[in-house]
Amino acid sequence: MTTANPMNGTIRLPIERPASVRARLPSVTDDAWHLPYYFVGPENAQLSLLFDDSTVAALADCSPCVLYGEQGCGKTTLAVTLAVRWSRKTRLRPLCISSGADFVSDYLSAIEIDDIQSFHQRFRGCRLLVLDGLDALVDRQAAQIELLHTLDALAEQGCPVVITASQLPTTHGSRSMSPCLVSRLLSGLSIQVRRPGPETMLVILRELINRKRARKQLDGFVDMLLPFSDRLSVCELNSIVDAVIDSVGSPQGLTPDLVDRLVAAHQSQQPLSIADIAKAVAGKTNTRLSALRAASRESHIVRARGIAMLLCRQLTSAKLAEIGGYFGGRDHSTVLHNCRKTAALIDSDPEFAAVVDDIRKHLLWKTR
Asked: What is the chain's alpha carbon radius of gyration, rounded to the nearest angstrom?
């Protein structure tokens, strides 16, 4: 159910947070969605129509549904929420939720080990497919053709597809995306997801502060931060609010200069490397980094190595061969096997999942 705020025209869209998503999509942790709602302002009015019950129920009629927009505007959150709502309303399962990078690497691995049937079972045997990050298929002609056939197969079965992308695929002079795939993608419903406008960001900022019970503590902070709102994602905004709460007790107190420095610090992000992730995993699991990179088969080292490989795959753009090369020269099929085994363990073992989640949060915090 969505609720509207008549004062500023924003709509609160309840967010769905299935636990299994953390093992399937990069950069998603239990606290990746900082509020229980996605706030839909006038800049994203089309979303209120997309999430209307009648549209959700008839999602297959407007498939593929492409949500496109810049990083940090909430495309992944919306795609997952839409998928879960559809499943709950239609009572149809299973859902397949995958990143574009996983689609490419899993397809190439299936070809190499001659097991395309298992790949098809996962991506074409579902009742709804979410593909998060179409950009990973740019210049990947074979994977693009496979996605085209997957879209056709699911359409024949009446199964909807939800895709996220940084920009709308076009047919105008693009050599990086198959014209046939572009045409197929544009045959459904395409919606641009924009960053929250000033009025919506004001609602979000106040909601964040209220949920942290820091309204009195941060008196005046809202006015100081609003000028930066067009440059910040909700994730960055939440991090800055936390940093401000930690800094309020300092001698200088809450000043415009402090806010300026915090915004600058959170916008100077550095991409994670394989070495960064390996060191973090070694530290959090009390494992020697040299052991992670060696041939040891001790169970706790194997588990730690699997965590590192999975996080490298999810949080970096490194290829499987690069990841395997760092971890003792292992081939890409070994890396893929370890990643799948670790993802399955996350789904079945809550304690293990909590450990992986803690490491992921630590790494993502470093990049903010």
From this structure: 22
